[in-house]
Amino acid sequence: MEYQNDELNFLHFFDKIGYNIGEGMIHHVNLHYHKSFDFFPELVMFFAAYTVNKTFRRKTVAPTHIKDSICFFFKNVFDDTPRSKRTESPAIRAFPATYSYTSTFRKDPRRVQVVAVIISAEYLKGFLKEDASKFQYLFDTRYDFIIEEIMTDDILRTINDIVKKEEAGNLSAFHYKLKAMELIFYLFKSLSKREQPVHQKLSHKDIQSIYKVRDKILSSLSQPGSIDELKQIAGMNELKMRKIFTQIFGMGIYDYYQHFRMQEAARLLREEKLSVSEVGYQVGFENLSHFSRTFEKYIGKKPKKYSLEQ
C-alpha cells in the first residue's frame, strides 16, 4: 500500500507498522515531504525530509509489526541538497529490531533527509540465498548490533531514483519494491567488501564512546587526533577501541580518517574550485606528491585529473 504525502497518512503508516515515533517527532518536527510504502509481511519503505524546530530526545526502536526486522537508514543522501544546507554528512546505519538507543534531535533550520528500508530477516535471507552466511552477524539474534557503511555512487544513484519527483506511473508499488531491493543489493555489495571479524556484543556505552571517537576524527580532517587522545575520548584501551571501531564502521581508524579526508579534498576541488596545491595544504599535506598518491588511492584518480573533469 502506498501512503501519499500528507501528515495524517504518514502517522497512520507508522501506526500500522508498529513504529513509535514519539511525541517529540510529532510536536517538534516540520515535515517538508514524505512518502511511504508497505509490502507486508516482507518489508516497508519510507522517505522524508524534515527540519527540527526544538531540540528533543527520543528512544529509537524498530517497528514491532515486522517480525525480526532489520532496519536500514540512509541519511542526508539526496543529491539536490548543497553540502552547506545539510545537517551532517551522508550516512547509512543498520540495526536489528532488538536494538534500541536514544537519539538527540537538535534544533536546526537545515533539512534532514532520510530513506528507510525495514525488512524481515527471513525475507532478507531468502533474497541473499547462499550469500546469507557471509552476513551472519546480521541474523544472529543473540547479539544486538549497529553498523555504519560508507555511501557509494550506486547507492546514491538508486536513492535519488527513488525520491525523484516524477511518479512511477503504472505498477507504482511494484516499481518501488524493486527499487527497495535494488538499494539493499548495492548496500550488501558494499558490505561484502568488509573483512569478516568476530562480532562482539556491544553495550550502548561502547557505541556512544566509539561515535565520540568518530566525531573527533571528522571534526579535524587536516590534523588527526593521536591514538592516546582517541583512547581517552573512548574511555577504553586501544585494542578494544580499534576492534569496536572496525566492527561498526567496517574499516580501521586510519583508513576511515583518510577516506573522509580525501572526500573533503574532492569536495574542495569540485565545489570550491580550489587548486590542487591549495586543497592539499588545506587538508594537512605538506608534500603534494604524497597528497596526490593518497587522493588517487581513495578517490581513484589523481587530483588534477579529477579537478579537470568537474
Automatic annotation (TrEMBL):
SMART domains assigned to the protein according to its UniProt record, in alphabetical order: HTH_ARAC
Q: What is the lineage of its organism?
A: Bacteria, Pseudomonadati, Bacteroidota, Chitinophagia, Chitinophagales
As given in the record, the signal peptide range reads none
| Superkingdom | Bacteria
Its name, as the record gives it, is: AraC family transcriptional regulator
Domain HTH araC/xylS-type: where?
211-309
The family database entries (SUPFAM superfamilies) matched by this protein are listed as: Homeodomain-like
Q: Does the keyword DNA-binding apply?
A: yes
Q: Which organism is it from?
A: Chitinophaga sancti
The UniProt keyword set, sorted, is:
DNA-binding, Transcription, Transcription regulation
| Ranges annotated as spanning the membrane | none
Single annotated GO MF: DNA-binding transcription factor activity
